[in-house]
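[retry 2/3] NADH-ubiquinone oxidoreductase chain 3: previous attempt timed out, resubmitting with same input.
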Amino acid sequence: MYNILIYSIILMFLLTFLLSLLMFISYKSMKDREKSSPFECGFNPFESSRIPFSSHFFLIAVIFLIFDVELVIIMPVILVMNSLNMTDIYIIMFIFLVILTLGLYHEWYNNMLSWV
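[retry 2/3] NADH-ubiquinone oxidoreductase chain 3: success.
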């Protein structure tokens, strides 16, 4: 118990030191203000850089992430194919693909996939 307290105190001091070092290193002066401003091919920005974000683009990005995560789920199944029998693998993949197909149907039904 005593060791945990000592390690916690040391960790707090270390984190405080690193945070203050980071604040010192990343100090920005008024001269750096131009570097932080938006830049469009040598011209001043034509529009505000704080325009509203397209919700349709956000939905497309979420759909991409869903289909990208499917690879993370499928890859371990491929790696453990030798230890499982084929019927278990087919059942797992079938259930996963049914859930993925239902999600695709839901997105199609709610017109998330139309570009109009």
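[retry 2/3] NADH-ubiquinone oxidoreductase chain 3: The mean pLDDT is 79.
[retry 2/3] clearing retry counter.
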